[in-house]
C-alpha cells in the first residue's frame, strides 16, 4: 500500500488546485517571478497536465531591475516551445524613468510591479492569476484564501472573503472581477526546499553561494549587479561569498553571507538560521501592516 | 526536548531523507473569546522554533504597542494577522499556521470564537482531522464550548483535545480539571468522537504545552505537543471504496484521453473495473499516468490521470467509482445545512450547488427543522439566517453521484452558491437520498448492501456477544435488541437456541465442531448484515481465532465485539441452567471454563463487567458505543 508523505499530500493538493483553475476559469495565467517558488509552481503545473502542455500562459512582470542571472534563467524558459511565457514591462514607468534610486523603493514597486501587473491583467483580460505566495510568509497571507477574489479594480477585501470548505473552490466571478489563486498556500519555506531537493528542480544560481560584488547599506548587503547602482562617496564594492534567500529587484534584495553552494547545504543553513525569509526585503519594513495595505491595493 | 531542537547535521542527506517521511496532521483550534487560542498557537510556534529572530524582535515591539501582557511577549500577536484584529484584540477570520516536528508537519486552522463567525469555524473544521477545544478553567464548559463541539462533530471530526487553559489562574487545582472533564464527557457522549484527550495547560506560562509541568503532578498524560506528535489518526479514506471526481479531461491529441482528478477514497490499479456515475457505464483502468511514469497503484489523496480501455463518455463532474461498490445517484436529498450569508436561505429560490467537480442548480423544497446550535433542540422554521443550521430537503436539476457525508466527507459535502452574487452562502452535508423508490427502479441491477441498508435508514453491523456460559449474553442482547427496535431499527438475534437446533444440529462440542459452529454463524451473520440488518450474535465463541475470522469477513467497523465478562466463580455460582453442576459431575464434556478453555478478548469494542452492573446498564454502554461509532445517530 502506497503511503503518502506530507510532501506527496501538498503536491496532490496543489495539482488539484491548478486543475480546478484550468477547468473552471476562462482565461487564466500563471505568474512567473523566476524565484524558487515559481520554479516549484511550474514543475507542479507540468505534472498537473502531463502529458498535455500547460494549458495557460506564464506571465513575468519585468521591473527592469531584476538580477541579470534571473533574466538569463527566464530567457531559457522563453525559448521552450512547450511553454508560453509572456513578459510585461510598464512602459509608462520606463518612460518616466522610474527606478528604486530615483523614486524610492515604495514608488518603484508600486509603479513597476503592482501597476505593471494590473496593466498586464487588464490587457490580456486574464480572469485568474496564479501566484506562488505561501501562508507562512507573512501574517496577513496566513488568512488569505486559496482562491482569493479581486474587485474589478483589483482590490482585496480581507473582511469579505469566501469561506473555503473541504477542497471545494467557488470559482464563479462576475464580469470584470478576477481571482488570484495560490496553489502553494499550505507549503512552508522548508517544504519548498525539500521538494526542490526531492524532485531535482532547477533554480536560479543566485540561490547558491558564490563570490559576488556587494556593498553594505543600512546593514543590508546589496549586490552590484550592474553599473546602475549609484555608489556613495567612498563606497567600494567588495567581493563576498553570498547568496540570496529570496529574489526580487536587485537593489531591494539583500544578500546573506553564506557557504551554502548545494541544495542540501542551503537546507542545512536554513534549519540553523534565525532570521525569516522576508527579512532581506526592504518592502515589508515600511509600516507594521505594510503587506496587508499593498495587497489591498493589488500587490501580489 | 531533543525532539524539537535544531537537529544535528552529521549527515544532512540522511536527515533530509528522514524528513521526507513526515506525515501531515491538520487540526483546528476552537474556543470562545479570550480562552487563549491565539496565545496557545503562538506558543506552539515559538516552542517548535518556528519564530525567527526578526519576527521575535518585531513581536516584542508590537507587544509593547498592542499587547495585553505588559512587558511580556504577547504570543497572540503572532497569529492575529490582520491590522483590524490587532487593534481590536480579537481574531476575526480563519488563519492557517504551520509548524513541524521531526515526526509531523502540522497545519493549524485558528478560528474565531464569536457566535457570528460560526461559518469560519465550519470552514476550519472541514479540512481538519482533530480539534483542540479550549476551555477557560475559571469559566468551565460554556454555551460556546457546546456550540463549537457540535459544529466540530457535525463536520465529522473524530478526535478532540480538550485544552483546559489558564490552570495558573485556578492554582493548578486538579478538581477543577476533573469537574470540567466529566461535564464535557457527559454532554459530548453522543457526538461520535472516537477520542477525547483532556490536558490541563497554561498557554501563557507554558505548562504541559511542550513538557509536563511540575505544577500539575497529578496529571499523568502527555503534554500537548507530544500528544499532537503521536496521536494516531486513522484515515479510513484509504479503505473505503474507490472514488475519484473527474476534474479535467486531458486530451492533448487524438491518441490520448485521460481523466484527471484527486482520489477521494480507496485505491486503483490498472486492470481494475470502474464505473462512471451518474451514467453508470463501466470500463477498465488501462493506465495510471503521472509525469514521473505510470503507477502500479494510486491511493486516496493522490492527484492522477487515468486512461480507460473503452471510449465511454465521461466529462468534468462525473465520479469514477469502484465498479462493485459504486456511489449512489440521486437528484433529491435530505441534507443538513449551515447558512453562511447575511441574506437568508429561502426555500424555492434557485441556488448553485457544488460538490466534487460538479455544479448543479439547487432548490430547497422544504425545511424540516432548524437546529439550535447551543442546545441542539429542533425548532420549526422555514428559513435559515446567517450561522443557523437546519435539516432540509433539496432538489437538483440533474442527478449527481454521492455518498452520505458521515460515510465519506468529500463525497457528501457541498457548498451553496448564490446565483446573483456568486458568493458562497452555505454548506451542506448529505444525509440520504429522497424518493428512494425511484432510485431502486433506476438501479434495479445494483441492489447493494448500502442500498438495502439505506432503505432501512440504518447502518448494518454485527454485535458479537462473547463470554462464559451463564454470563448473561442473551439477557443483555435481548435488551439491546428491544431498544433498537424501539428506535425503528431492523434487527435479528442469532443464539444457541435458534441455530444449534436447526442449522448446526449436526455439530457437537469438540474443538473442531466449535470452530465450524462459529464459522457458520459468522457466515449467516454476514449475510444478514448484507441484507441491511443489525445482527446480534450471542455465542460463547471461546476462541480468539474464530472471532477474528468473523471480524475479517466483514468491513472495518462492522464487527463490534462485546465481551460479557464474568468470573468463572460467579457464572458457576449463578448456574441458571444447571450446566456447570453437570459439567463438574462429568455429565457434559468439553464445557467451556471447566474442561475446555475460554480465551477472553484482548481488545473488545465493548467490555461489560457484568459482575458489577445490571443488564440494563450494560445495554446502555452498547447503545452509547453504537452512537459513538456512528451506527446510530440522533
Task: Describe this structure in a few short sentences.
The complex is a heterodimer of chains A (300) and B (634). Chain A contains 8 helices and 10 strands.
Keywords summarizing the entry:
heterodimer, A: 300 residues, alpha/beta, Rossmann fold, 2 domains, 6-stranded mixed β-sheet, 4-stranded antiparallel β-barrel, 8 helices, 10 strands, 34% helix, 15% strand, globular, B: 634 residues, Elongation Factor Tu (Ef-tu), domain 3, 4 domains, 7-stranded antiparallel β-sheet, 19 helices, 27 strands, 28% helix, disordered N terminus
Topology of this structure?
The complex is a heterodimer of chains A (300) and B (634).
Chain A: H1 6-24, E1 28-31, H2 36-49, E2 58-61, H3 68-78, E3 85-88, H4 91-95, H5 100-124, E4 128-130, E5 147-150, E6 178-181, H6 189-199, E7 210-217, E8 220-223, E9 238-243, E10 254-257, H7 263-272, H8 290-297
Helix pairs in contact in A: 1-2, 6-7
Chain B: H1 12-19, E1 23-30, H2 37-47, H3 53-66, H4 76-79, H5 83-88, E2 95-100, E3 104-110, H6 118-126, E4 130-136, H7 143-154, E5 159-165, H8 174-187, E6 195-200, H9 224-230, E7 243-245, E8 248-253, E9 256-262, E10 267-268, E11 273-277, E12 281-289, E13 298-299, E14 303-308, E15 319-322, E16 328-339, E17 350-355, E18 358-371, E19 378-379, E20 389-402, H10 409-412, E21 413-418, E22 424-433, H11 436-442, H12 449-455, E23 461-466, H13 473-486, E24 491-495, H14 496-499, H15 511-530, E25 534-538, H16 544-553, E26 559-565, H17 568-574, H18 579-584, E27 606-609, H19 615-628
Parallel strand pairs in B: 1-3, 1-4, 4-5, 5-6, 23-25, 23-26, 24-25, 26-27
Antiparallel strand pairs in B: 2-3, 7-15, 8-9, 9-14, 10-13, 11-12, 11-15, 12-14, 16-20, 16-22, 17-18, 17-21, 18-19, 18-20, 21-22
Helix pairs in contact in B: 13-19, 15-16
